[in-house]
């Protein structure tokens, strides 16, 4: 039986991957600060632990797993990573996790290590034109990510690549572009644009309005979580170790994204653009390389993914309306991670 360790198995992508690996017959160990918030983990064995702590890491990585998936990071949407308020925590917490995990994978002779980097590593100077951003894998240097979150991801890419060069660690690096779907964070400050907009639309009274950060003409692309999991599995089964974009190339403005969600909801709502953190002007996944090396690329239409996500978030909003306020606070705290206490 093949074995896998998922770091960050209580999070959005990690919990979806645990389900997929179990369906493929793996033995799965998960580790996270928290259990998945919206479903029971599919992992055979789930350790609640802080991966900033080297002793926890040693305990978790106590055998030669065939595959390690490293998703654990201190992260969130624009409201978390672009305000500057969380920069020290984001860099420190996520870097510590990677500094701990990389050498242990060598020591335990792990077969393959998958590291989830981000489109946020791409230089800001290539993403100023909302209609023509450049996010080719080979455009990462000269580096100029627009956030400390992006700099930490770039540092950790290089860290893993150095372990590959010097210690023979087999490392797969993917750069995710805005993954969305059911069971992702949808409130509390760490949610990303699709979830935040679905929530705003679901909560708005018919005939009301929703607020959008920025002028709404900034562009992005969004990848449905099932496609992300498929891409991860195809990549790790291949000989191509990356870095590789895993994203959709169906680019859309944020205002149009909101209009799509409003249409799906069946409500009549207007949009008000307000100042707020928004990141680069344009970003789109360049899928030339993934098509070339995997002979496949994501193509699930945004419209379909949004329908499923909206339906799920609408249900969460309805459930929340009947949940006592005290429980809501506890849930948001469980999802948080501030400061280093180790
Ligand atoms: P997520 O926040 O849902 O999952 C990350 C998990 O890591 C969380 O459950 C969190 O509790 C856990 N974690 C954080 N610090 C930890 C620690 N010290 N010890 C143990 N666990 C810890 O995020 P996600 O959307 O599932 O993203 C997974 C990975 O992919 C992250 O590394 C993220 O940076 C990267 N990524 C995601 C996206 C996206 O759109 N979702 C885009 C680019 C990159």
Describe the structure.
This protein has 342 residues and is of the alpha/beta class. It has 2 domains: 3-180 and 223-246, NAD(P)-binding Rossmann-like Domain (Rossmann fold); 193-220 and 250-283 and 300-327, UDP-galactose 4-epimerase, domain 1, CATH 3.90.25.10. It is 40% helix and 15% strand. It has 11 helices and 13 strands. It has helices at residues 12-23, 54-60, 78-81, 87-107, 148-167, 193-203, 225-236, 254-265, 288-294, 302-321, 325-334; strands spanning 3-7, 27-32, 45-48, 67-70, 112-118, 171-176, 179-180, 209-213, 219-220, 223-224, 244-246, 252-253, 270-274. It has a 7-stranded parallel β-sheet, with helices on both faces. It has a two-stranded parallel ribbon with strand order 7-10. A two-stranded parallel sheet has the order 8-13. Helix 5 links the parallel strand 5 and strand 6. It binds nicotinamide-adenine-dinucleotide (NAD).
Highlighted features:
UDP-galactose 4-epimerase, domain 1; alpha/beta; binds nicotinamide-adenine-dinucleotide; Rossmann fold; disordered C terminus; two-stranded parallel ribbon; seven-stranded parallel beta sheet; 342 residues
Short description:
The chain is an alpha/beta fold and 342 residues long. It contains eleven helices and 13 strands.
